Amino acid sequence: MSSLDIRHLSAGIGDRAILKDFSLSIPKGEVHALMGPNGTGKSTLAKALAGHEDYTITGGEVFLDGEPILGLEADARARLGLFLAFQYPCEIPGVSIANFLRAASQSRLPEGQEIAAVEFYKKLHAKMDLLKMDRKFTARGLNEGFSGGERKRCEILQMMMLEPKYAIMDETDSGLDIDALRIVAQGVNLMRGPNLGMLVITHYQRLLDYIVPDVVHVMWDGRIVKTGGKDLALELEAKGYDWVSKELAPAAK
Amino acid sequence: MNSDSATTTQIELDREKGNFRYETGYAFDAGVGLRPETIDYIAEVKGEESWVREFRHKALKVFESKPLPTHWATKDLEAIDFSKIRYYLSQGQKPSRSWDDVPEAMKATFERLGIPEQERKFLAGVEAQFDSEAAYSRMKEGLEKLGVIFVGPTEGLKNHAEIFRPWFGKVIPTGDNKFSALNSAVFSGGSFIYVPKGVKVKQPLQAYFRINAENFGQFERTLIIADEGAEVTYMEGCTAPKFETATLHSAVVELIALKGAKIQYITVQNWSNNVFNLVTKRGLAHEEAEIRWIDCNIGSRLTMKYPGVILKGRKARGEVLSIALANTGQHQDTGAKMIHAADETTSNIVAKSISVGQGRSTYRGLVQIPKHLKNCKNNTECDALLINANSRTDTYPAITVRGEGNSVQHEASVSKVSAEQIFYMRSRGLSEAAAMSLSVNGFINDLVREFPMEYSVELKRLIELEMEGSVG
User: Fold this and answer.
1) Which of B16, B67, B127, B263 has its Cβ near the most Cβ atoms within 10 Å?
2) Cβ of B424 and A50 within 8 Å?
């Protein structure tokens, strides 16, 4: 079993149901895009998968390489290989990027084993160079004073350092200008391979010009209403979300 | 060499020659409670000059005449039973216990902090003495070559009276407060240091080297004099928890920095949770001199401590960097005092406190710049971090600025560790406890960096341990 399997997932906040019988399977080696208008549950999916306490799961199961994860805490899911690139990454003042990533890398090692400092820094600098991040940033507080775009880049840096099995990217393109978008996409594309399954959540088609998906899903009112190849994204852009609500959603019921 | 049982009656001569001598013929036991006879006993046992004995007796009267300062300080002070305290203990009377009786939590802390085996036994109260003689005598030789004097109060006042007596009790007079009076009556242990003109001591001087059961005592008296242009750093305390049956610790520290001199005094305090730690610390900075207090309070049931600097000479500089961590059952009541008494003096206070569980931390900051002074500056930053819903913090700034061209800046903040931050860190694989302690370490990071490296590493680990206890 080499996939992230989401089966009939229902979830919400408080009394409000947001995800309704949501099912999706992301095999390793593939990039899936998830598109949909605001309020349809895209971010809820990302946070619920990551294990955010605000969201209540009311039904369904999620399996990571065959292991059920809904009963696990957020950090346990992360250590199993799940990564969430946040839409709005927060600041952690006083905690440097380097120290943070060391602690995160360390948490994946068995008790007693230590991260080898020299290799760690070599890797960190290499990835930062790739993402055109100034090496000075290693000492800066995580996201401290960073613009939105810089924070997104930092998310990708973390992804490259932690090498997850499944990565969920929550609207990574928001707040990025074209140049930053290219750099981020380059980083993500370098990671593509048989050991990584990716879910790219996006509102706009543009990102998908750079990170070309294998499969595109369209979401509406808490569930997937259509699945197709990369051309589906273009069709969606041409026809707009009205097309989804008027044709795709009723058809999917 | 080491006494390792409470039943031993072997009397040992202290290795600090002349510092301590116990006469086997002396039958009186100081016992508990404080009476004039206790003073006589202490002075006798130490072989003190009559002026010192008189100083003590006067102080006892002042102590008895002053009430507890509960009109502004916590009423918890009323829990101190002065009649039940032993004010002087000789070596053989120190309590000790077997390693099996040492609480697991304490053993775990030693393990986590990487404390060497032999030190563990001393800190845990299993052995009365820690043999650091070899390290100490090497350091002592180096210092003697420089002309630096580093002795205990008894030796200082007896053999170097011409240096120490003029300043003794001048920065902190006996009557300053009830507890400075108490200390002035029963002081024992501590460090008296003199650094000659122009001598810059590179290695920090550590109280730890002078550890023995007596010096880690309840009523330490420290006096450091840096002559013109001299520089010295002094480190007191350690991050490891210390077994302590005595409930009252009341130290007095006086620093004198003469023209152009620099003194840096670093304290890490981690007394056990039964201790009342009431300390008076003050420095006197002359022209162009600098005094810096770096203070970290993690232990004790109640700590009251307001390191201060009197900026007596032009262009003098005073600084207090303070970290306090208050867990359930603890109250850290700390702060700083900056008294400007000359033109162009500057002072800086950075105080960060963390309240965990039901811990309570209090900041009291006094800044005084009177109207006849010019071009003085003060900067104060006090930040509090509340970890749990019942954690508590209070801030009482007392700022008086008058005159022309003086400026004061005061910034204060209270914050919580945000749930979003914790989730973010957990989503990277960090456990909740690891996320909390990273957050807390981030909060105090720029202050921890000011500590010498050995301390800063231990401090971070200590905070991790404290945070683990608070989570879940």
Assistant:
1) B263
2) no
**Residue A40 tokens, joined:** 């349809």
Per CB-CB distance under 8 Å, the chain B contacts of A83 are 427
**pLDDT at B195 exceeding the cut of 80:** yes
pLDDT-above-90 percentage for chain B: 53
Give B426's contacts in chain A (Cβ within 8 Å). Answer: 51, 73-75, 78
Instruction: Pick the closest to residue B240 from B118, B96, B119, B97 (CA basis).
Output: B119
Q: Is residue A105 part of a domain?
A: no
Which chain B residue shows the shortest CA-CA distance from A109? B429
- Band of pLDDT at residue B136, cut at 50, 70 and 90: low
Long-range contacts of A227-234 (CB under 8 A, 24+ apart): A230/A33, A233/A33, A233/A35, A233/A205, A233/A208, A234/A205
pLDDT of residue B63: 96
Write out chain A residues lying below 8 Å of B323, CB-based.
none
CATH number at residue A23: 3.40.50.300
Q: Please report, for residues B271, B284, B285, the alpha-carbon distance to residue B288 in angstroms, rounded to integers and kept in the order given.
A: 35, 12, 8
CA distance, residue A117 to nearest chain B CA (Å): 16
ipTM of the complex model? 0.94
Q: Do the chains contact at B441 and A94, CB–CB below 8 Å? A: yes
Q: In this predicted structure, what is the pLDDT of residue B106?
A: 74
Domain count along chain A: 1
- Residue with the larger pLDDT of the pair B370 and B269: B370
Residue A236 lies in a domain: yes
Query: Is A217 inside a domain boundary?
Result: yes
Task: Show pLDDT as tens, one digit a residue, over chain A (253 residues).
Answer: 799 999 999 999 988 999 999 999 999 999 999 999 888 899 999 999 999 999 999 999 999 999 999 999 999 999 999 999 999 999 988 899 999 999 999 998 887 788 888 999 999 999 999 998 998 888 888 999 898 888 999 999 999 999 999 999 999 888 888 888 888 899 899 999 999 999 999 988 889 999 999 999 999 999 999 999 999 999 998 988 888 888 777 777 6
Instruction: Give me the residue spans of the domains in chain B.
Output: 1-305, 418-472
Q: Which domain holds residue A232?
A: 3-88+145-252
Query: Distance, in angstroms, between A86 CA and closest chain B CA?
Result: 8
Which residues of B lie inside 8 Å of A (Cβ-Cβ)?
A: 418-421, 423-432, 434-435, 438-439, 441-446
Of A208, A240, A155, the residue nearest A32 (C-alpha): A208
Selection from A62, A87, A91 nearest residue A166 by Cα: A62
What six digits make up the tokens of A171? 């609207």
Residue A248 CA to chain centroid, in angstroms? 25
Q: How far apart are CA B251 and CA B240, in angstroms?
A: 19
**Has residue B29 got a pLDDT over 80?**
no
Instruction: Supply A206's token pair.
Output: 């543009």
More confident of the two residues B140 and A216: A216
Nearest residue, CB atoms, B429 vs list A90, A99, A107: A107
Whole-number mean pLDDT of chain B? 84
Chain A and chain B share a number of CB contacts under 8 A equal to: 75
Cα dihedral across residues A209, A214, A216, A217: positive or negative: negative
DSSP 8-state code for residue B208? G
B95 neighbors B6 (Cβ within 8 angstroms): yes
Chain B hits for A53, Cβ within 8 Å:
419, 423
Residue from the list B421, B428, B443 with its beta carbon closest to the beta carbon of A104: B428
Q: Is A116 part of any domain?
A: no
Please answer yes or no on whether B424 and A86 come within 8 Å at the CB atom: yes
